[in-house]
Design brief:
alpha/beta, Rossmann fold, globular, binds NADP nicotinamide-adenine-dinucleotide phosphate
């Protein structure tokens, strides 16, 4: 079972498609509900099975992360793959509803918090947690975003950080 944040569009959706086509049950998370429903339909057709679901949640907000984790826990008792994919690039310094700088919230707090909230499910599987966030780039090895990966690895889990090239 796999969860892809930002899985209703862009790189996340193609990641979700590849996982679903290989037979995985997939949950994709995005903000826009309609876009989520359209992505589910598209991914189901590609995969040839119905085990694709969407959750609408803003991962730059703590309540959104909690709602997403709860929705996954309600439906699944283990998580094999977690792809923390959401990235944001606001034109200037903006704050989330929680009062946190938006890029920091999306690239650092969200991967860390979601991985932490879902750790009980990850621990039930030989799980892999991955991040496509720029803050998790190997070029920035000492950022907090890589710390969660190290923590997951030292807990016996597989963790990778990936930065797609432009
Ligand atoms: N594209 C590149 O060339 C590139 C290069 C280097 C790194 N990256 C990184 O790769 C990742 C994906 O990039 P991308 O270009 O595929 O991104 P994208 O097209 O902007 O991703 C859109 C997806 O993210 C969701 N999303 C955006 N903000 C969200 C939020 N606050 N909460 C929940 N979902 C949210 C969108 O949902 P809605 O449509 O519902 O808003 C949609 O599913 C990012 O971390 C990005 O920084 C991309």
């Amino acid at each position: 079972m796999a969860l892809v944040t930002g899985g209703t569009g862009g790189i996340g959706k193609e990641t979700a498609r590849a996982l679903a086509e290989r037979g995985a049950s997939v949950v994709v998370a995005g903000i826009d509900r309609e876009r989520g429903l359209r992505a589910v339909q598209d991914l189901k057709e590609s995969a040839g099975h119905d085990r694709v679901h969407a959750v609408s949640a803003d991962v730059t907000r703590l309540d959104g992360l909690r709602r997403l984790a709860e929705a996954v826990r309600e439906r699944h008792d283990r998580l094999d793959v977690l792809v923390n994919n959401v990235g944001v690039n606001p034109p200037g310094r903006t704050l989330t509803a929680d009062g946190v700088e938006r890029m920091f919230a999306a690239h650092v707090l969200a991967p860390f918090t979601l991985t932490h909230l879902l750790l009980p499910l990850l621990e039930r599987a030989p799980a892999r947690a991955s991040s496509t966030s720029p803050a998790a780039s190997p070029a920035a090895p000492s950022t907090p975003a890589t710390c969660w990966a190290s923590a997951a690895t030292s807990a016996g889990r597989s963790a990778t950080t990936t930065t797609p090239r432009r």
